[in-house]
Amino acid sequence: MCAAEGVQDGTLKTGVAGLKIARRPEPSALEAMVYEPLVCFVVQGAKDTGTKGGSVRASAGRLLVVSHDIPIVSKIVEATAARPYLALILPLDLSVLRGLEEEIGGAGGGAGAVSRALSLHEADAPLREAFGRLLELVERPGEAAVLGPLVQKEIHYRLLSSPQGATLRALLQTDGHAGRIGQVIAHLRAHVADPLATEELARLAGMSRSSFHEHFRTVTATTPLQYQKELRLLQARERLQAGGQSVSAVAFEVGYESPTQFSREYARKFGASPRHDLRA
């Protein structure tokens, strides 16, 4: 996949089916962000990615699959100027997955229990080849508009038909546990500053309180309260780095009642005070 090697350092949005190319010439510090549903194919190097439930190392030839919106911490652990970290990142399109599920029904793979939102898998030859063809289209924009969606659909099909298909299929079932937890996660992201009402979230999921906590932790590897805290801190960091607001204003906007508590939890998570990240 030599086309990826010509990318400058950082993350490039290609304009082909949502594909991004990530390139880093050296190991990185820990980075924290919210990952939306995606698949990341590591071409070269390695990256540690984790949640409260632990971390996985995605090395060359492996696929990192994220099925739900979850707070993630990650760092590049294998990269040099001669052999930089290279990865292809493709958003998971739920409408494409639903269409494929209707087409293939039970013909795909992946029956079984719902797994966590973050999982790691070996990329088989058909998936590697499909990613290679999608990458080639970056240099052929005339063909990309027509062929890009077709290759994107093929990648989604192969994911559904693979061992990780169980998690994706469960996500598509809005009346299933994973689908209902997905609805709760969307609600939490849309109302990040609101006080956490566990009973309301359990009702939204159509579960008892104990069942809701169990399934939420199964998917996200954390509790609803900790998930909300992670969202608030990550959103606060983005606002501070964007500039134009005081630390106190940002704290109140993301739902904290006490700027002192906000500063304490922020420093605990990011290793620096909010003022350190405040952009003038």
UniProtKB/TrEMBL annotation:
Gene Ontology molecular function, alphabetical: DNA-binding transcription factor activity; sequence-specific DNA binding
Pfam families: AraC_N, HTH_18
Coiled-coil regions listed in the entry: none
Transmembrane segments: none
Residue ranges constituting the HTH araC/xylS-type domain according to the UniProt record: 182-280
Keywords: DNA-binding, Transcription, Transcription regulation
Database matches in PANTHER family: ARAC-FAMILY TRANSCRIPTIONAL REGULATOR, TRANSCRIPTIONAL REGULATORY PROTEIN
Protein name (Swiss-Prot/TrEMBL): HTH araC/xylS-type domain-containing protein
Naturally occurring in which organism (per UniProt): Roseovarius indicus
